[in-house]
Amino acid sequence: MPAFNAEKTLKKTFLDIPRGVADEVILVDDSSHDRTVKVAKKLGLKTFTHPQNRGYGANQKTCYTLALNEGADIVVMIHPDYQYDSSLTREMISPIIQNRFDLMLGSRIRTRAEALAGGMPLYKYLSNRFLTLVENIVLGQNLSEYHTGFRAFSKDVLQTLPFHKFSDDFVFDAEFLISASAANFRIGEIPVPIRYFPEASSINFIRSTQYGLQTLLTLLKYSLYRLGIYKSAIF
Fold first, then answer.
1. N or C of the chain: less Cβ packing under 10 Å?
2. What residue ranges do the domains of the chain occupy?
3. Domain 2-226: CATH superfamily, name plus number
4. What phi and psi values does residue 125 have, to the nearest 5 degrees?
């Protein structure tokens, strides 16, 4: 769980994880201003704290490094803000256990009506649809969403991809999936309910725009890499 100011939602997210499905739950706190760390420790989570805010991507880097060091075979990443339904963790990892996929995504986009009814702002929905369309075309995939905060990976994915070279910012997520596609890992998805509410973390319009532009830039670099014009440390 990459956490930042998740005091109000962490417990609900954790308690929804089916008992026995996870051997260990690790929370990395990115220098929160609230009681996230105290709540995590009270819940018995293995907790690591960044002394300074390092960014969303940097938080995930620490999460995956710690998980691999614990000997994890499958790693599930879920935001502890209760926006995603952690009760579906077993459904997320089953295709990986069955060796049908290497990486699974929890997609919030099943229908437009459902996404908007769940509270997704219209501009986020439209930008999500546009970016996903471009990503599918460039990467040759057919996914319904690339921008979810509920993901599961086999250890082979994390041991193969140079995720420590990815951005420390939000575009880490896009770089991860583009790099995974470039490495020919099998990417699957399941539908998950969407929950937008005041306590759920969400980047604002300006940060969303920056994320979108950075994602498009990464896709451009990937296209140039495939053409042999550009050399990259992440593909």
1. C
2. 2-226
3. Spore Coat Polysaccharide Biosynthesis Protein SpsA; Chain A (3.90.550.10)
4. -60, -45
